[in-house]
Amino acid sequence: MRILRTAEHRFAGIPDYPFTPHYLDVEPGLRMHYVDEGPAGTSPVLMLHGEPSWSYLYRHMIPVVAAAGHRVLAPDLVGFGKSDKPASVDDYSYDRHMTWLTNWLQALNLQNITLVCQNWGSLLGLRLAAEHPDRFQRIIVGNGMLPTGETRTPAIFSVWKAFATHSPWFPVGRIVQLGTERTLNKYELAAYEAPFPSTEYKAGARAFPKLVPVSPADPASDANKAAWKVLEKWRKPFITCFSNGDPITRGGDRYMQRRIPGALGQPHITLRGGHFLQEDSPEDFARIIIDALKAEMAA
């Protein structure tokens, strides 16, 4: 496996991203980057990004939650951000991503976690919580789901999958902009492009759409079904905060509220924004996290 590493100068001077970098090898020679802010002795809030973003997506939320007295960890998935990037699309699979993320979780020995996830952060994070339920205290999902391939995918997803697989042009900044209601400035667009100095660095971003289970025969379908069996008995807090402008995940919040017992009586909310609600409603999203942690302390 040929591994690429984005040069650090690509990230120099990015506005609103002052975080000290941390690195961990999730397998020999493969390095994952993560943000680790706030008091180290507190219960961690784990923020998982998706496609084709990186921990920069949470830049406006991390300081707010950390300032409220919580430890916040935001890793860059392998293939994204400051993490290493295997050079071939074939180097990526759902199971490999799960292994890399699990190795990171276990190496840091995180406990009593509040999971915050969106997009592919949900496909990985919900599996992670279901496979390690003793490590997780609550789950907060925004614009995400855990598909098993048993339900039909939206037509817009099929278009996106075909584009990611076949288009010679893959403009990451513009892709994020398409999923965001507010207009990103040139520095924000550049920050989303920063991890990818050339086309060969984008294999992980191109790989993700075709790894989503779209039929019961998909390699990840059985593992996701097993995770759902755990989630259907999940009685710890489960909160949804989807946006009102995401055609890909629309309705997923109500679906999870019906199936997951821990969702009963929780303060579910619909936020303003597109697919990347961290860009459109970061303060409101952060407030949901802080309020959920306050509710635990008051209980």
TrEMBL record:
It comes from the Bacteria. InterPro entries: AB_hydrolase_1, AB_hydrolase_fold, Epox_hydrolase-like, Haloalkane_dehalogenase, Haloalkane_dehalogenase_1. Residues 44-154 form the AB hydrolase-1 domain. Keywords: Hydrolase. The active site is at residues 246, 275. It catalyses: 1-haloalkane + H2O = a halide anion + a primary alcohol + H(+). Its EC number is 3.8.1.5. The keyword Cell inner membrane does not apply. The keyword Membrane does not apply. Gene3D superfamilies: alpha/beta hydrolase (3.40.50.1820). Monomer. Belongs to the haloalkane dehalogenase family. Type 1 subfamily. Catalyzes hydrolytic cleavage of carbon-halogen bonds in halogenated aliphatic compounds, leading to the formation of the corresponding primary alcohols, halide ions and protons. This is Haloalkane dehalogenase. The gene is dhmA.
